[in-house]
Amino acid sequence: MAGYLQFMTVRGCVEKVDQLLTRQAASRIPDGVGRVLSAVEEAAESSKLWWGAAAAMAVAGGWRGRVAATAGLSALTLAQLVSNGLCKQLADRPRPPKEWIPHEEVHDRPDSSSFPSGHTAAAVAFTAAVAPTCPSAGVACALPAAMIALERVQSGAHYPSDVATGAVIGLACAWLTRRAPSLLLRRVLA
């Protein structure tokens, strides 16, 4: 019983922080910044931004660029499967209430579950998987990944906890994608 009460207390705190941060992001980010965030998010829609980055790395980056692009796209795919294919189906969390969002962008959000942020999971997975092989590409991808995470809260599409969970999923998928070949090789040779 004590564990359940602790869980409910933590959950209540997370919900209060989610509400506060969502309202702050939606009302305090200037319109011009919001438009830039929306443009970056639109570029990342259906993973277009990340596929473009992977293509650029594969063409201009030589062997390292091709390895980084493959790792990034593999991690992105896994993150989308975990966040959109599994977690959203299990969680079925409603989006933040429209009355919290004082701008028109709130009407242009998906009807799917809010939890977790698939956009953030994909962005972080791609960036974290690319960075070890191609650090300059990782740095270049980090800014749009952060902008996407902020935009998902600012637009009213997600709560901050959805975005944070998406980031954790992205990091875990990047780690798994980068480690899977050596883990499989050890398993086969053992």
TrEMBL record:
Q: Where in the cell is it found?
A: Cell membrane
SMART domains registered for this protein in UniProt? acidPPc (SM00014)
* Keyword rRNA processing belongs to the record: no
What keywords are annotated for this sequence in UniProt? Answer: Cell membrane, Hydrolase, Membrane, Transmembrane, Transmembrane helix
Record InterPro entries: PAP2/HPO (IPR000326), PAP2/HPO_sf (IPR036938)
Coarse class of the primary localization is membrane
Highest taxon of source: Bacteria
Keyword Nuclease in record: no
Q: Where is the Phosphatidic acid phosphatase type 2/haloperoxidase domain?
A: 71-178
The topology of this chain with respect to the membrane is: Multi-pass membrane protein
Cite the Pfam families for this sequence. PAP2
Q: What is this protein called?
A: Undecaprenyl pyrophosphate phosphatase
Protein source organism: Streptomyces cyanogenus
